[in-house]
Amino acid sequence: RYVILGNHRDAWTFGAADPNSGTAALLELAERLSKLQTKGWRPRRTIILCNWDAEEYGLIGSTEWVEENRAMLTSRTVAYLNVDVGVSGSGLDASATPQLDELLKQASKKVQNPDNGTESLYDMWMASDGSLIGRLGGGGSDYSAFVQHIGIPSVQMSIWSEYAVYHSVYDDFTWMEKYGDPMFRRHVAVASIWGLVALGLSDEEILPFNYSSYVTELENGAVDINKRVLGMPVSLSPIHKSIKQLNRAVLKVDSELQALQTWKFWSPWRNNPLRVRDLNDRLMMTERAFTEREGLSGRPWYKHMIYGPSLYNDYGAEAYPGVDDAIQTAKKANTSESWQSVQHEIHRVARVISQSASVLSGGFS
Questions:
Q1: CATH of the domain at 148
Q2: Per-residue DSSP letter, 133
Q3: Which of 5, 14, 52, 168 could form an S-S bond across to 61 if both were Cys, CB 3.0 to 4.6 Å?
Q4: Does the structure show a pLDDT above 70 at 232?
């Protein structure tokens, strides 16, 4: 089983923030893992460190590698953890597929705020944006192939603020040393939270995934879509029905996890490693079930039916991207056929949510 960490190494110019702040964090993390090994530590799951080329030219390095190793990655990868711009400001910015939300929050509480030694990184996060976790629907970095093409749970994190030298010749060491991170403590904080998330995924006997966050996100996405199709011949009942099915699967898994945490139930699981493996496989593979072989209509490379880039803005993220594409087309054409296409996309989304519920619960649809 693999936990993969990645950062790209190519830059438009000097690239002190983008990507070299992330590269520095990756190298720091590699050194820390090496020191742990010298003390006898070994991860339960393999940790792979990746350094991509040609990210700025269209995510070429990571995309080609994912496509070439698709079979191995889809069968064995637990999660992909991406850091692009490691440091560019003073606020924690994090995005993830929803089952990793809680792990991300818990890791941030264990890292010291680099700007205030009496607080945690979580406190910095709350102060900057209220602990809002973004979603990985946009196509702006190397998580894209992992999430949107083959359906691997993923995270992207950064200590970030909008910065004027982005992709310019002024993104150099002088800017970083004077403005971005004068004491380079923010770099240490990024490496720390990155490493803690990686250790949580590589060392915990039961994968620390929480799919209840996914149910909430799916419901919120359905509410947003419903507002856009009011008065139109479209029904979201298939999506609502499949979300309820997923919620039942989440409750089933939660009861299994609660049983594990109760001492009297732990011994039988210890004596039955195949049962532990089965639960971990279901937690790992559920994200894959949100993908469809045919991909989005007109954009078949993007196979994730829940998260993908906007048709008109690759950096923009849309929940239910196939439905969003169909709605935009239908509003322009306003024909019965165009609204039937919207309904078709809704059924496609409902189907993958139902599939994910079956995978998580360990049954058949």
A1: 3.40.630.10
A2: P
A3: 52
A4: yes
